[in-house]
Write a structure and sequence with these properties.
The structure is a single chain. By secondary structure, this protein is an alpha/beta fold. The protein has a domain of 149 residues: Glutaredoxin (3-Layer(aba) Sandwich), CATH 3.40.30. The chain has 7 helices and 7 strands; from the N terminus they run αββαβαβαβααββα. A 5-stranded mixed beta sheet has the order 5-4-3-6-7. A hairpin with a 2-residue loop joins strand 6 and strand 7. The protein starts with 10 loop residues before the first helix and ends in a 16-residue tail after the last helix. The mean pLDDT is 94.
Length: 239
């Protein structure tokens, strides 16, 4: 390939940068291959029930809605489990900054798939936080009263003993978790397509799980910088 050349760069810089371009090409090729592998997954398991959620409906009033209705005009539904249960005074900062990024994309995603953010808090509390945060394009649904979180690992209640030990979940306790789950609606049957299980996969020491990186602009921007991510982790608010 023909490489670029920036003003006053050294030969050592260009040699190292060209090698990095080759590595970036390999990474891009691998990312495309992984995406193709994901698209080619066989049919996943059928959901055990048509879960009942709560969302804000007409006239800004709460309404009960079944999972099958969340698909809207699409055959694909993306649910993001937001760590903002009723026991939390404020939402998880990691989930919050991820949704800061996803909110901008949501207006475009809606042309291809249905996207909802789900959490155990009452729907009014979720919507109030969205308004405070300035999220204008995200849709929310409350999982209060259904078993969606337990069944699809939006909480730790069905973790195996090995997973509980690996993630420091004490016996007898449970808390909410972050995970994407994607579902397909075909011939009236809802099936699980994919979940961001990388969240729970072992990683090297001092390495982030990166399970939501593909939807998070912050980490991509910091990865471009000389300092990288470092030990930085976003806060819900900055003084």
């Amino acid at each position: 390939m023909v490489h670029l050349s920036y003003p006053n760069e050294s030969a050592d810089y260009r040699e190292a940068r060209n090698a990095l371009v080759e590595a970036e090409i390999s990474l891009r090729t691998q990312a495309e291959a992984v995406a193709a592998q994901r698209r080619n997954l066989p049919a996943g398991g059928q959901v055990p029930e048509d879960y009942v959620f709560e969302r804000i409906g007409a006239n800004d009033m709460p309404e009960k809605v079944r999972m099958s209705e969340l698909f809207g005009p699409h055959n694909t539904l993306i649910l993001y489990s937001f760590m903002y249960g009723p026991e939390r005074k404020i939402p998880c900062p990691g989930c919050t900054h991820l949704l800061d990024s996803v909110d901008g994309a949501a207006r475009h995603v809606g042309q291809r798939a249905s996207l909802y953010v789900v959490a155990k808090s009452p729907i009014a509390r979720l919507v109030a936080w969205a308004r405070e945060r300035g999220w204008d394009h995200l849709q929310f649904a409350s999982t209060a009263g259904n078993s969606y979180d337990a069944d699809y690992f939006g909480d730790t209640s069905k973790f195996s003993p090995e997973m509980r030990k690996a993630h420091g979940v004490p016996d007898g306790e449970s808390w909410d978790e972050t995970i994407y789950n994607v579902f397909r609606l075909d011939d009236g049957a809802i099936r699980h397509f994919w979940g961001s299980e990388l969240r729970f996969a072992p990683s090297a020491p001092h390495q982030d799980h990166r399970s939501g990186d593909a939807t998070n602009a912050l980490w991509g921007l910091l990865d471009m910088t000389p300092e990288g991510r470092g030990k930085f982790f976003p806060k819900v608010r900055y003084d």
